[in-house]
Fold each of these.
Amino acid sequence: MNNWKDSKSVFITTFLPGTVWLTAFFLVPLGFVWVMSFGEKYGIIDIVITWTPNNYLRAVESIYLGIIWKSVWISALVTALCLMVSFPIAFAVSFAKDKWKPILLLIIILPFWINLLIRTYALIAVFRTRGHVNFGLEWLWEKANAGLILIGLGKHQFLGEKFQPLAMLYNDFSVIAGLTYVYIPFIVLPIYAMLERLDRSYIEASLDLGASQIRTLFSIVIPLTLPGIIAGVILVFIPCLGSFVIPDLLGGTNSQMIGNVIERQFKSANDWPFGAALSFLLMYVMFGVLAMRSLLTVRKSEMKV
Amino acid sequence: MMLAIFSRQRERPGPLEYTRQFWLRLMVFTTMTMLYAPIVGLVVFSFNDSKRNIVWRGFTFDYYLKAWHNDGLIDAFVNSLTIAVIATLISTIIGTSVALILWRFRFPLKPIYEGTMALPIVVPEICMGVAMLVFFSRVGWPSGGPWPLNLSAITIAHISFCFPFVAVVIRARLSGFNREFEEASRDLGANEWQTFRHIIFPFIRPGLISGALLAFTLSIDDFIITFFTSGPNTVTFPVKIYSMVRFSITPEVNAASTILIVITIITTLLAMWFQTSSRFYKLSKEGAP
Amino acid sequence: MASRSNHDLSRRHFLKNTSAIAAGLTFHPFKATAKEEKRLNFYNWDTYIGETTLDDFKSKTGIVTQMDLFADSDELFTKLREGNPGYDVIVPANDYVERMNVAGILMPIDHDKIPNLSNINKLFLDADFDPGRKVSLPYMWGTLGIGYNKGNVSTPINSWKVLYDSDEYSGRISLLSESADVIHMALKYIGHSLNTTNPAHFKQVEELVIAQKQHIKVFAPDNGQDLLASSEVDIAQEWNGDIAQLMTEDDAFTYVVPKEGGLIWQDCLCVPKGAPHPENAHAFINYVFDADVGAEIANSIQYATPNEAARGKLGDDYKLNPAIFPPDEVIAKCESTLYLGEEVQRIIEDTWTRIKAS
């Protein structure tokens, strides 16, 4: 890694675009909202900046912390599921014949160019009581039942009197399934990018030395693709934590995530200072985690050099 | 020992030919089926002759005609596409520059810079949406103007949250770059720009493509931030769909989505065809050191 | 309401002027004395207009209407509170009209430019939330009650109990997802006015709904009629027009306003400040109040029209439909929401957050 003073012109060229844009069109707007989190409502739409800590004090009440904890749990579960599903796919595409790669990538990416709301509604059509899965299961049930009756076991009603549809919608299951469905590509792409540059000879060497495929996977492949995995995990966990559209549409009476609460503050509750405080609280936590990670990486790379 | 299981196969896949191994194929197949099943259902039911669209009642093209003549829907779609293309281009450029600087240079306050660059990923979308709304109204950003200038507010907001994602992806790719190539290039007399163009750029190209794809997906799908920054005549597709499905989802929405899918496939295939295959594969082979 | 300090007056004044100037600059590149462009920006609920109304308006006046959609009143309010992004006509519900008026977002409507106002039922020409109808004019009105599948219930429904206090149809019922709607109807069930400000009443509601949550399938965002049609639930808290539309397609369903009383609401046409085409806005409102046009709209969307002349043109299946035009004794038990101030809003929201989190 060079010192910035070594090639100043290059440094400036790469420094300016990101910094200028970020400052003007992100930090400044966010600054407005940050200031707002110390404000109070005055009338219906006015906000007076009194530099009060009340909004933050309210944000750390147990009810909100409880909701945040639940959201963290759900996001962690979704991230783990995404990882487990995406890794084999990224693997398969990366090791496929070259002429198949773009096509496979396209097939994976394609569902995610379809609008999120539409996919969510498609999921509803799949999960609901009179949805595709239940229709399918009902068909199977009837065939199995008919079979049982045929062999004379009908009256025992082994399969129950009537087909009981699975309750797959409007509960935590549907929220987790929906979130996983939506966030898979955010993991597949970084892992695929890392796998692509993975030196195959490492794997060959490991196998030659007698390690099994699984051991090779865990001892060689995963550590080498770790940056991609971490990138993917961050790209999923954090937006998932703040999501509200999917819990809103797919969730039941118990599925409330912190994103929903924040959204309500900006809309029906019309309490923008409190909404700002809640979002910033969430952000401070996430920011701390990220800063820790970057400090660890710096220390690691310094050790390597 | 795993390989022994597959020795019954006609042509044994090599140890690294994972894609030909049965269990992986099965896993991938199952996953793809589950990914596509809702979408297939969506497409099939776009031909359903039933306003409520719950059980299949008959085949019809009516809803396609309705969607085709729905000017609002078409305008919204064109807006979405325009914004996504411009945002992707600019985000990729900015994201690359950020990834490069983080990869290459040590400078004071670097961890803080890194953290700040990651902020758009961390900020809840609704918070950012409100921030942009407040910002544009306080600054007095002109919201009218001829197309596509009236989309500027939305595009700017999209770029702001897209480029960090691109930076993350490219950075992950860069971390595997062997700096000796770069040094060798400089030793041989190439200047910075030439080194970048001929050595670094081809290497990060898969990362660039992944990053651009990600940015495009994020932009075209975005709902919350767009909602806060849009106004009359600048409705995008997700915002339009959201308000349509709040009441009830008729097959018209399915039909519109199917048309969108078909257009996406055709566009991508064209893009890939233009990018002559041999050049692409040569470069991606170059990428692995 | 509290009086504003000078500081805030000038800040808001500045904001208003800036957005007005910005809007003016963008939509009127030349001085505003020029005739208005033949455009109208209409911000409305989805499908809340007749099928051919906008096209007919264009044929008649040459004005092209762009209709943008919002999904709930909060969205409308959030969009407009920081300055009008360019809409000419909006459709808020009665309590939001009050709220917006207090916030100073609405422009007075010139009744002289609306000769068709004579078609409107006199009862609607004054209202608690807008005395003298200065900033709003009635568009549609209706009730909030219960829609249900006649075949799947043991006895005809006539009380909120089955939704708020009973496990008889556990897992087969749904409520709305707006905090205010659920909480207000719970208040009616318990026997209080929905315009109460007593925190103890809200506490009762909180306990009631939390206890009932296990039986509720979902808090449906305005698509209860879809849930009924797809047999996801058998009983749904829903707006009368949605159920009336469902009833025209499938007569297995019916609608009732429970005996404890329901909500009576009124959606209004308003012109927000900073509208780029106020003349066209007035022309549009006048057009909508025409008898034939009003009849076409009412027939499409199956809500109750305040337009007497339009109502006269429609058939009995509309006029005598109890789901659309409830009998007087039902109306007597219903209440309208009043805007009670931000403190009460906050209590409602906190109650709702606690309900959803438990």
Note: The CA atoms of residues 140 and 305 of chain C lie 5 Å apart.
Amino acid sequence: MPQKERYQNRIELLQGTLDMLILRTLLWGPQHGHGIGLAIRSGSEDVLQVEHGSLYPALHRLERQGWIAAEWKMTENKQRAKYYRLTAAGKKQLAAERSRWGQLVGAIARVMDPT
Amino acid sequence: MSWFHRLFRRAKAEAELNEEIRFYLDQETQLRIDRGESPEEAMQAARRAFGNVTLVTETTRQMWGWTLAENFVRDLRYGARLLRRSPVLAGAAIVSLALGIGANTAIFSLMDLVMLRMLPVREPHRLVQLQKLNGDSTRGNLSYPMFDQLRRDLRSFDGVLGQSGIQEREVVIDGRPETVKAQFVSDNYHQVLGVSAQLGRAFSGETAGPVAVISHDYWRRRFAFDPGAIGRTFQLGKAVLTVAGVMPEEFFGTVAGVVPDITIPMSMDGAIRGGRSWTTEPGISWVSLLGRLRAGATIEQARIETQTVFARILDEYKHMRPAGRVRDYFLAQRLALYPAGNGFDDLRREFSEPLAILMGIVALVLLIACANIANLLLARSSTRSREIAVRLAIGAGRGRIVRQLLTEGFLLSAIGGVLGVLLAVWFGNWLIVMMSNGGERIALEVRPDARVLAFACAASLAACLLFSLAPALQAAGGGFQSALAEIRASRWRLGRGLIVAQAAISLLLLIGAGLFGRTLHNMYSQDPGFNRRGILTFWLDATKAGYKGDRMKALYQSIFAELRSLPGVISASSAFIPPISRLAWDGSMTVEGYTHGQQESDESHLNIVAPDYFRTLGTPVLLGREFDERDTPASKRVAVINESFAQYYFKDRSPLGRRLARNGPDREKFEIVGVVKDMKYRDLRLAPPRTVYFASTQSESARGWSSVVVRTTTDAAAMLRSIEIAVGRVDPALRVLEPRTMDELMSRSLLHERILAMLAACFGALALVLAAVGIYGVMAFQVARRRREIGIRMALGARPREVVAMVVGQTARLVLLGTAIGIPCALGLTRVTEKALYGITPTDPATFVGAVAGLALVAVVAAYLPGRAATRITPVESLRCE
């Protein structure tokens, strides 16, 4: 299938990192679900593939945990869309996940390239 | 949040989620169109990239965290559908649960009413009962002067109140006499309790004056909630009192179960009596005490202080008693302090033990019911094993299956619980009617209040866990791959365990029923010393009709004559204290020629009886004669003694002609003229005490208040009307009070025994029925399981009798095991019922054997039916079945 070929150099998201990416994306300002997906895709220069289907469960989970808040707004094209924004708790969570991520990357790097 | 709101919010959230996803797809499609794809292609590609929309929606919804509740509701609905599909099983389970929970809730609510509920007063935990105990630990009251001194001297109490017993009195309101329950209380009564009137005012604490307060109940009954009741006057004795206040509805007085209609200050006693007030009589004990501890004081401190103060008061009053035994007895009095947050403990003392025993019995019944339901559910879960295997196969978690089965159990126990509460209200109120024993209705009512409902909920939940956890775990534990046979085998193991448990518990209940039944039988079949058939007793109060002295004696003569002239009456007599009336009168005696030892009691029970008393009761005169018309104030003083007295003081020598005297100021000598057979005195449970009878015809002042005993040839109760007319003929002012046949008196006296025997029998029978159903179910299942094996055995020549014996034998082994467990438990448990038994030990071998035999019989019958069914199996049929 042609489409499959086009996406073959994309990497599956590491388990648990989607939440962090969503929070990071929202740091720039409120965004709707599709916009978040696009931002992750383009931010990773099309390398990271967000499973569209996993985006919404993640958003609703984060909302329930109080890290993001949702609000219905009009888009520039005068369409109703649900915009998510980062809450104060979300910012704290992002910082925590970012440092955990840093530790993980560092640890893996040390294992892969022992000096 | 209400269900409606939740559902509404839920619907809105679903709509929003759909809109969100639609928006996403629109955006994605638009993006692709902008890249140059055709609209159709773009839409399809967007959808493809998004994946399964339904699945995404589903997963997202789970994030909302409502799934638990949703699953619960779904399980409930599914469970309800299943129950509807097997109405017999559901009905059996619900009925046994309703009975079990209902019985438990009823007994609990009675215990709550009688033993646990606090008085509706300010800080009830600070209330303390000051109970006077005599040297021999019998309970008694104080005289008013001693009470008054005590309450002024005690420092560890904020206040101490006194109250009389509650009596029926005649009051005149609007010129019309009526009988009310009246109680005298000290003028600080309401102040110490910390209650105020709902309407008008309560007693102020200072001298209250000629006033009274009425109960809410009486206000409703007599005045129909008329606020004008305040200020109404009524006559009581020689005084006119004004109604000053109405007490609140929830205030039931300080004695559980008896609410006085009218409460009167003790300071009015003299005015009512029209003579010397009992508040100035140090010799009359009629006051019981309740104190309110000072804030911060402990009951221990109060106990120590009370002891010293009371000892000092006794010392002050001791000169009023003659030195010697009487004074020693007086000085041996003490005050015991009990926490009294729920009031005086009379009803509690009387019923706490039977209620505790009943609570144990009903808890066992609930256990059996649970075992039975577990059995029924097991039977069903094995037929459902295919369904459960399929559900496990398509990915249901084991926990999910257990939850589903537990939810079904919850549904059962919830329905059973609701029915149980309804049953409990009915059963509890019926028990209260039983407890009040045909007399004054005990003023308690079982209402499903918060505590009772909480208990019922707890009982239902516990039952639910008990009966559904094991089958649920067992069903889910079977696993997907395990063969059906394996599930069935483990079901058989569990079923066997349940039979053993049921047998053990049923045995306990049967033994209990046997013990209580035989106690009742022993009570009735013992010889009370009189012939109870055809006796009617009633009270007469001649003082109220204005009789005194010789006129009084003449009155009794003419009443006896009038009664004897009635057709159907054999004889009539009277006594100061009739048999088994719960009344007692005792005194210390000197017997000529006998010296009491230092530690030896010289007390005997006394009574004053009229001529013909023993003939009327049917008590044989063993020696000499009973009193007759020859015994007059002018003749020599005579006495009649009972067998025990004769045996104790005279051994083998003849007591006739010997003399005795009451220890007291007069020391008058009485000559013994007769010995009668022992007769139960105050209580059927107690052995007849040493008793001395005096002649009413000789006593200085004839008693105005005495009990008339009539022997009739026919049914005593049927004679009541003509007896009332006969008494009215002598003097229309006289009334026949509390007429009772001797049979009634005995039934009343045996109230506890009757309640326990009846309920233990009912619950024992219920347990047997449940156990029989359980055994039948398990064995029938077992036979079905071994269908093939039995068929082959029969084909190889096994005779039907052997097949039946195999099934019955299997049951017998299980029941035997249950018995082996049940008997040691029974030996331990029945010991707590020892005090409630009579003429039988708690380990009575005959009762145990009988209970085991009864259980065995029922078990064999229950197992015989499936056994017989097994003999009808033909090999061909059984093979075809597989």
Note: The mean pLDDT of chain B is 83.
